[in-house]
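Q: My labmate handed me this sequence with no annotations at all. I'd like to see what the chain might look like in three dimensions before we decide whether it's worth expressing. Could you predict it?
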Amino acid sequence: MPEASPSPLIFDRLLMRARRRRAVAAGPETFLLDRVAADFAERLGAVLRRFDLALDLGTPGDALCAALADFPSIGTVISARATPPEREAGRARYVVADEEALPFRAAVFDLVVSALSLQFVNDLPGALVQIRRVLEPDGLFVAALAGGDTLTELRQSFAAAESEIEGGISPRVAPFADVRDLGALLQRAGFALPVTDVDRITVRYGSAFALMHDLRRMGATNTLLDRRRIPLRRATLMRMAEIYAERFADADGRLRATFEIVWLLGWAPHPSQQQPLKPGSAQARLADALGTREISTGEKAGK
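A: Here is what I predict for the chain of 303 residues:
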């Protein structure tokens, strides 16, 4: 039997961790994580059940752990991240672990959450399979990832500037996944009742340089393995800023930056969950519901 080919390496995860540590030391920019953590609180508040043991997987900062600590229906929270936290948040307990290699036994958590982290794993299908494994039956998984339209303005501006100044382009912004692909990955990983939806957040900046400053303070600058290793030319950088201002400025001169947040939700299968009906088991005909005449196979519709 042929062996499965390994997943391609896209991100330099050691560099990513170093840049996150640097961002924390310099004073992190957390507005996006704060927004997502508040949205987590709203979404989990609609789930009327208790979670005794929850896992916060890979989320930078402490905003999500603090939000989970405010839920009386959530018991113990384990925060798994690649580097130890700068400070503790709420009732969370911390484990140093990588999203790509979970050190937990099967069926131990009844809730797994992750915010703005899983888009940077090299093997997302494998990570989802591992998350499904550590969930107990009828356990819930909720995650927020950066989606395909994130920083589309910056990507377009860099591509145009590099093509014009240097005669080619280099990868500078991560290839974020599409919402339809992520829904299919949930099903492949074995999740029941999968749901995906998208939230688009538009942030306005005085210049492209202000956006790039925020990205550094988020620890979200370029960590692609295929990134160009030589310094960015000043002429290219300045042309990128000009193109950004020409194409993506509002009437008041401020520049738009899009952050697309893709939400994933899935349950570990359990017999008590809703099941699809078997083919042919329907008790009513679609034609009756629509008030039309059913046409049998081979019969042509009248004009």
